[in-house]
Design goal:
alpha/beta; about 260 residues; 2 domains; Rossmann fold; seven-stranded parallel sheet; 8 helices
Length: about 260
């Protein structure tokens, strides 16, 4: 295995039937890894697309808001692939509202999927990686894991928590060949962000084009969306031997947002 290749590695990616997760699944498969997909909706198009890279591709459905189901997802993914070397926690949801108007159920769901599911999948996969003597855990956090925005209290709290979880696990595993890192993208043009754009346009009686320019990308000095493929490329690099000394870190990919 060369440093540029993941041939023979086994990877599971949560929230990977669209958006960033699907781009990551593509990149891992292109690098030679067998992949387990997970997510909402019809998985057939994603399975077909990722399979084009010639590696094994499976789909394991799971309600990641349930801790036991999230842990079972890892067990099932290992069984499907015959091992599990790489875990990418990408699944996430969003809701926008002031704290005093934030629905309790939305808070609970965002914390469960965006934060707690990472804990449960990591708890399940770490013993597998210890036994194998190697592993890579990459948590897709957000610029909102480093800074806050109004009306996103649950998302910001969850993503800050993801970074804390990443650091703690990395320290626990520092003397092993298992690394734990986080990637913190700014705004990426995904279905999740498209929903936010539509919601903001409606709430502010603005065109979606104005929302993108004046609200969504106002925080990113480049005024450009991050591309899912860029996050995917960083994920693949963190899985290589060249990144074996990188652990416990949060890597910003945010168009300069957190440089302010």
């Amino acid at each position: 295995m060369t440093e540029a290749s993941l041939a023979g590695r086994k990877a599971a990616v949560t929230g990977s039937t669209s958006g960033i997760g699907l781009a990551i699944a593509h990149a891992l498969a292109q690098a030679g890894a067998d992949v387990v997909l997970n997510g909402f909706g019809d998985a057939a198009p994603a399975i077909s697309a990722v399979s084009a890279h010639g590696t094994a591709v499976h789909f394991v459905g799971a309600d990641l808001s349930d801790g036991a189901a999230a842990q079972q997802f890892v067990i099932d993914a290992q069984a499907a692939l015959g091992g599990l070397d790489i875990l990418v926690n990408n699944a996430g949801i969003q809701h926008v509202a002031p704290v005093d108007q934030f629905p309790d159920a939305k808070w609970d769901a965002i914390i469960a999927i965006n934060l707690s599911s990472n804990f449960h999948t990591m708890k399940a996969v770490i013993p597998m990686m210890k036994q194998a003597g190697w592993g890579r855990i990459i948590n897709i956090a957000s610029a909102h894991g480093l800074v806050a925005s109004p009306f996103k209290s649950a998302y910001v709290a969850a993503k800050h928590g993801v970074l804390g979880l990443t650091k703690s696990a990395a320290l626990e595993l520092a003397e092993t060949a298992i690394t734990v890192n986080a990637i913190c993208p700014g705004f990426v043009n995904t279905p999740l962000v498209a929903g936010q754009i539509a919601d903001q346009a409606k709430a502010n009686a603005m065109s979606e084009e104005r929302v993108v320019k004046e609200i969504i990308l106002a925080s990113q000095p480049t005024r450009r969306f991050i591309q899912p493929e860029h996050v995917a490329a960083m994920t693949v690099f963190l899985c290589t031997e060249a990144a074996s000394g990188m652990t416990g870190s949060a890597y910003s990919m945010d168009g300069g947002w957190t440089a302010r």
